[in-house]
Amino acid sequence: MKILHLIHKIQNRGAETFACQLANHQEKRGHNVKVFALFNGEANLPLDNEVFCLYAKERNRFLDFRAWKKLALIIKDFQPDIIQANAGDTLKYAIFSKKIFRWKQPVIFRNASEVGRYLKSPFQRHYNKYLYRNVNWVISVSEASKLDLLNHFPFINQHTTVIPVGIEKTKLDKPNLSEYKNAKNIVHVGGFSFEKNHEELLEIFKFVVERNLNAKLHLVGDGPLKSKIHSKVQSLGLEDSVIFYGFVDNPLDYIIAADVLVLPSIIEGLPGVLLEAMYCNTPVVAYNVGGIPEIVTSDTGLLIEKGDKKKFGESILEILDNPNRDQIANAHSIVLSKYTNDIISEKFIHLYQEILER
């Protein structure tokens, strides 16, 4: 089978990373796979082969005839059986290229978040309605993402399914944070964007550090709001307790060394970082948003209602004082049995075959 993956940008973000990992597994299973990014970037994505780029222009992303044509020429040359559009603007480019240049291959869209959160105007709703009317299938990352999609576009009901994100099996033998081995280490991994809710995380951490002066908060990631968060750290007087790392090649080195991983996001699909923490036997505390309650339950971690900063802080302190070993073991077992990429990639291939046989 020939598979063409579209990703939004050459950037270190969950959707792009998972698409490349998925492509690797599909290639290993004997399929011919290419990955094309709409927009250029400087990230080193985890793809065994080259990541190609359309060099689309972000300022023209609503009317980028040149990139639509370029995609059509790539499809004509490669002749893929399936085009999978992986989040971001990829569905837009795939559908308009297909409509204008009349190629026939089915388009699958991987819905990695909650689309309703981004529909702010009637124009956006009608625009997205057109796109979803012309897609062959939608793969949502969680049941919550699927339900959100169907709430806004119920006509897609017969053409959607859920396949979760997966993680890579890897050796866990390089724990970082050795210079903080005598501290209580709290780790957050995620880009500095409004969805990740860093400002509220700092308020939660302020509550924690006032009760455990030995606590340290390690922020792994980069993004447009990083300087703003730096300023808030200073305004809260947390300079000695919060450490910034920027983007790192292997966040597992930090996660495995943590006493707890925290995720107080306000929007999520199904965050792979929680699965990575469970794989590392690191306890988790997260807000009850998106698909998070599908993996964080009373058996696997601590789930907090969104906005309850006090409860979130108390839960962190609870784990720092007395981690629940049964939860940690259950979470690790579930990840190994359901959420590794060798298992997940097979689900994608089976769905492709079903679509092609229709």
From TrEMBL:
Pfam families, per database record: Glyco_transf_4, Glycos_transf_1
Record's protein name: Glycosyltransferase
GO molecular function, one term: glycosyltransferase activity
InterPro entries linked to this entry: Glyco_trans_1, Glyco_trans_4-like_N
Domain called Glycosyltransferase subfamily 4-like N-terminal: residue spans: 14-168
Alphabetized SUPFAM superfamilies for the sequence: UDP-Glycosyltransferase/glycogen phosphorylase
Domain Glycosyl transferase family positions: 173-326
Organism (species): Christiangramia salexigens
Top-level taxon of the source organism: Bacteria
